[in-house]
Amino acid sequence: MKLLVIYTHPNHNSLSYSFLEKVLKGSHENPAIKEIQVLDLYEEGFDPLLVFNKEKRRRDMHRDPKLEKYRNQIMWADKIVLVYPIWWGRPPAMLMGYIDQMFASNFAYRDTGGLLPEGLLKGKSVVCISVMKGPTHYPLFFLNNAHKMLMKRAVFQYVGMKKVKFFEFGNMENPNGKQVKRLEQIYRYFKNIVS
């Protein structure tokens, strides 16, 4: 298995970074995981802004040479792991800007003329690891599960990725937020996954 781990937080002293470290520790101890690439969007200086004009058309985004490295990473990976905080009930704008550009027509999906497109990233799976200050069940009960619906249905299933797993940890700024337990959970998950 080949893992592409995408980290989206501007601070390496954050709890999100601790989760990244546990993903990597568990993955390195798992014989089923043969290769790992890490993409730190902030450290990379990834530009999340979409720009379309006479020289840069939306329909050509799947061929943009500036994004070729990132397209190659996605095609290379069997499993994509996203590590990010939940801000205002959704992933950071940096991550959404990455998705806007990478999941382009004729790379991630193809219009078929029907109700839904053909997903071109079939066979890949996704793990979303997110932390938030609010209660764990806040997104479910107060936001109608908007975060999971956005990521699973509107993004990943749209491009053919049917297997999507979530670890959504709330109360993470609370001294009794079970941070150590949650970090250990992530470490064990990646140490033991087989597909």
Structure notes:
This protein is α/β, with parallel strands linked by helices and 195 residues long. Helices cover 34% and strands 19% of the residues. The protein is built from 7 helices and 7 strands. The protein has helices at 15-28, 41-44, 68-76, 93-102, 138-142, 146-156, 179-192; strands spanning 2-7, 35-40, 79-85, 109-110, 118-119, 125-131, 163-169. A 5-stranded parallel sheet has the order 2-1-3-6-7, sandwiched between helices. The protein has a two-stranded antiparallel sheet with strand order 4-5. It is globular and about 50 Å long. The termini are close together.
Largest β sheet strand count, sense and barrel closure: 5 strands, parallel
What string, H for helix and E for strand, traces the elements in order? Answer: EHEHHEHEEEHHEH
β-sheet strand percentage: 15-25%
Number of strands: 7
Cross-sheet strand order for the largest sheet = 2-1-3-6-7
| Poorly predicted segments | none
Give the overall silhouette: globular
* Number of helices in the DSSP assignment: 7
Radius of gyration: 17 Å
